[in-house]
Design goal:
Order of helices and strands: HEEHEHEHEHEHHEHEHHEHHEHE
Largest sheet: 7 strands, mixed
Distance between the termini: 27 Å
Number of helices: 13
Cofactor: Mn(2+); pyridoxal 5'-phosphate; Ca(2+); Mg(2+)
CATH topology of the largest domain: Rossmann fold
Keywords: Magnesium, Pyridoxal phosphate
Strand content: 5-15%
Helix content: 25-40%
Shape: globular
Organism: Streptomyces mutomycini
CATH class of the largest domain: Alpha Beta
InterPro entries: Ser/Thr_deHydtase_PyrdxlP-BS, TrpB-like_PALP, TrpB-like_PALP_sf
Number of strands: 11
Protein name: Threonine/serine dehydratase
Number of domains: 2
Length: 349
């Protein structure tokens, strides 16, 4: 049953999985027992969203929000990865795309968005100012607004990450999720309702931007000042209105990691052959701090990794792959694909 104030349910995640089949890849679940050395804990799994189109899970929410909704123009506010996903899908559908980016956003990501044919607008201030301008542009021009997180379609699309994890590993005990805008966390909370056993959902925030932890403790959404962190994709200031009640109802724990812990996790991933960026390494940093207890999965992504951006710039036509393809990365020797149970579908999204 859906809690009061929560408009979404797990069924929306299943519907999203069908809707985005094709433009979005089903990514593998990797066994990473050797990632921390021979004496490291067993049972560690990586959801390899660095192999997703555009290098991050953001393609899922953008696809679910845009597919089936005829729009000649779209507007999005983004730190980079969501903008890349929106620009790539707009190119696929023939829509004009405008992406608003806040001060401090990575130049490489802005270049990748432009390379896909989208217009990039920069705004002074933080994420709140960015999202305000995106809303104003959409309202003034009639374009479709595709929020980076706080949207029912986006949340349901991001939830397909956890849905795939549960299909590949039904005995999962703990799932660590990086927390920026909160769409992936809320979607994971919804998907967890489909688990046939107890499953702990742990959100991991940069210590400088603990808006969900602060807000859950306060019992209401709290807006924090703009901040800086090495995980530049996770700098949101206020919990989403769609997202907050879902997280408040279902998340088991919200923990914080320092920039040094994020960079250490990123180094581990890159040594293992996973071209992760800081934002895509936060969940692993949280798992290393918290401890691997039973079958534990973390969501990792690449986003602005050099390989992903180079492939994005090389994609010169609408028929070219929406980067990166799995072949762009060599499979690390310390990681192996976890086979899906034979009773589950192996079809790719």
């Amino acid at each position: 049953m859906t809690a009061a104030g929560v408009r979404l349910a797990a069924a929306e995640v299943r519907a999203a999985a069908e809707r985005i089949r094709g433009p979005v890849r089903r990514t593998p679940l990797l066994s990473a027992d050797g990632l921390l050395g021979p004496s490291g804990p067993s049972g560690l799994l990586l959801k390899a969203e660095h192999l997703q189109r555009g290098g991050s899970f953001k393609a899922r929410g953008a696809a679910n929000a845009m597919l089936g909704r005829a729009a000649r123009a779209v507007v999005a506010g983004s730190s980079g990865n969501h903008g890349i996903a929106v620009a790539a899908l707009a190119r696929r559908t023939g829509a004009e795309a405008t992406v608003v980016m806040a001060a401090g956003a990575g130049r490489a990501k802005a270049d990748a968005i432009r390379a896909l044919g989208a217009r990039v607008l920069a705004v002074e201030g933080g994420v709140a100012a960015r999202d305000l301008l995106a809303r104003q542009l959409a309202a003034g021009t009639g374009a479709l607004l595709v929020p980076s997180s706080d949207d029912e379609h986006v949340v349901a699309g991001q939830g397909t990450v956890a849905l795939e994890i549960l299909e590949d590993e039904p005995d999962l005990d703990v799932l660590f999720v990086p927390v920026g805008g909160g769409g992936l966390l809320a979607g994971s909370c919804l998907a967890a309702d489909l688990a046939g056993r107890p499953l702990r959902i742990i959100g991991v925030e940069p210590r400088q931007t603990r808006r969900y932890a602060v807000s859950v403790a306060a019992g209401r959404p709290v807006e924090l000042p703009a901040s800086r962190t090495v995980a530049d994709g996770l700098r949101g200031q206020r919990p989403g209105e769609v997202i907050f009640p879902i997280v408040q109802r279902r998340v088991d724990e919200l923990i914080a990691v320092d920039d040094e812990e994020v960079l250490a996790a990123m180094e581990l991933l890159n040594r293992a052959g996973v071209p992760a960026e800081p934002s895509g390494s936060v969940a692993l940093a949280g798992a290393l701090q918290y401890g691997v207890r039973g079958r534990t999965a973390v969501v990792v992504s690449g986003g602005n990794s050099p390989n992903a951006l180079a492939a994005m710039r090389a994609a010169g036509s609408a028929t070219a792959p929406l980067v990166p393809s799995p072949a762009a990365f060599s499979r690390p020797s310390s990681l192996s694909v976890l086979p899906s149970p034979s009773t589950l579908s192996k079809e790719s999204l």
